[in-house]
Amino acid sequence: AAPDAAAADGAAPAEPAAKAAAVATSSTAGRAVAQEGPNRTAQLRQRRRHESTEERESRNAQLLSGAQTGAAAGGNSVPGIPPGAGGGADTPQAASSMPTGMWQCVSWSHKEPIKARQAAATAAQFDLLLILTKPVIPLIMLISLGQVWNSLWSSLVIGHALRRWVPQMSYEAHHLLCSFFGVMHTLLGVSASQVEDYANREHQKVLHLAWSWSFKDILSVLHMCQLGATVTAMSALGNEPSFSASFASGIALRMAIAQDSFRGFSFTRGASSWLEGQMTSFGLSLDSAEETTTYSGGGIGDCGGGPFRMLFGEGPQAEAAAIVLKVWLMLLPLLATMQWGQRTYQAARLLGKRWKMTRFVQRLVLFILGLVQCFLIANVELNASNGPLCNFWVAMLFGCAAESLLSTYDIRGNMRQILFLVMFLFI
User: Any residues with CB less than 8 A from the CB of 298 and at least 6 apart, and which?
Assistant: First the structure.
């Protein structure tokens, strides 16, 4: 009995030691978060916590104010920029992320550009949609309700809907939206006089949509310039396609569709007749659409002269000045077209994977729109009289140069917010 009792007394202290050894063996406190190897990224992605709505809004506010860059939001630093100027994964820096030297501009890059661009697109989506959709709200109210409410209350409702209910879109979708609103810019806007005339009609109410140059169109150019410069500063990449070029490509498509060579196709005539019938059923009518979209080119429309003939006379100097201006205006749209072409090629190599077809189609459409715009720039005659839409298109092409200049500065902060408020009030 004595040896058995001694064995039992000796086993008692040994049992806790065995349990402690087993716990130490099974514990993961001393292990690495993710083992080195091909599955390291997948292991890290599984442990990532989804951010809440408050955290996402806070991050977007920091991006728009300049307290953080898209590179910092994506979790990587920007090569070529000093650590105190470009922002990193752990310490987001304030509004000094723009490169200062020529070589820094050339080598400005990011290890994961898709994440940086998506972070910038997430932060800029509300600003983009709020101003682009504001001119459309009165038209929708007239069609659906027969009257127009106070713009302040309607803007509050639309702003809440854009923040809460509109899904997050990719940066390619943002450029496609700019192109779409470029096509519909002269169709969807309703002025105060048109609303008043529509309301005063007693019998058959037909809303005549007639576009003309106004201060709002200048603000549209300013909006595209500011938006492109803001996205460039937030993504911290330096090679973003121009938003002004995307909007201008939509205007160029509208002008191309209105030409006789395009309207001569049978499917175009059928689609045009169907669209006119649908607009008539809604009480809408387009006035002076052909005069708005006319432009000179190919020896047609240049009999009355133009701005360069007024300055240089009938000599070859006027023609040379028009050619130089066309080449200069084509540079940035051509660069944007080449960027979309190169990204379309990259997306084509990834076809067959999840969600890659959508990105490929979006980039392909933007590339085709860029080609149409470059073709139209090459054929338009600037030293002649053109329609109002062509003049607005040229103004947007000048906006490409202004956006490129603004993109060399970090325009985020309080001044950008004040400018956005002014554009929202007057556009």
Answer: 379, 381
Torsion angle of the four alpha carbons 106, 112, 113, 116, in this order, in degrees rounded to the nearest 10: -110
Q: Nearest-5° angle of CA 427, CA 70, CA 332? A: 60
Q: Is 75 left (phi over 0), alpha (psi -120 to 50) or beta?
A: left
CB 255 within 8 A of CB 390: yes
Query: Could you tell me which of 106, 64, 98 has the C-alpha nearest to residue 82?
Result: 98
Low-confidence stretches of the chain (pLDDT beneath 70): 1-53, 56, 65-99, 102, 105-114, 143, 146-152, 188-208, 260-265, 268, 282-284, 286-289, 297-305, 354-355
Determine whether 247 is exposed, middle or buried from the number of CB atoms within 10 Å of its CB (0-12, 13-18, 19+): buried
407, burial (CB in 10 Å: exposed 0-12, middle 13-18, buried 19+)? buried
Residues in CB range of 219: below 8 A, 6 or more apart: 423, 426, 427
Cα separation of 366 and 374, whole Å? 12
CA 176/CA 172 separation, integer angstroms: 6
H or E element, residue 39: none
- 63 vs 175: CA distance, rounded Å: 20
Model pLDDT for residues 351-362, shown as the tens digit of each residue: 877 667 888 999
Helices 151-164/113-133 angle, 10° precision: 160
Query: Are residues 293 and 376 in contact, defined by beta-carbon separation less than 8 angstroms?
Result: no
Digit-coded pLDDT (tens) for 19-47: 555 544 444 444 444 445 555 555 545 55
| Residue 28, burial from CB neighbour count under 10 angstroms (0-12, 13-18, 19+) | exposed
Q: Quick check: helix, strand or coil at residue 207? A: strand
Distance CA 427, CA 425 (A): 6
Q: Are 374 and 365 in contact (CB under 8 A)?
A: no
Please name which of 233, 123, 112 lies closest in space to residue 174, comparing C-alpha atoms.
Answer: 123
Give residue for tokens 């007639």.
210
| HSE-up (13 A, CA, CB side) for residue 378 | 9
Burial of 416 (0-12, 13-18, 19+ CB in 10 A): buried
CA distances (Å), 393 to each of 119, 255, 293, 371, in order?
A: 30, 9, 10, 15
Rg (CA), the chain: 29
Crossing angle of the two packed helices 171-183 and 113-133, in degrees rounded to 10? 30
Residue 239 CA to residue 120 CA, distance in Å, equals 13
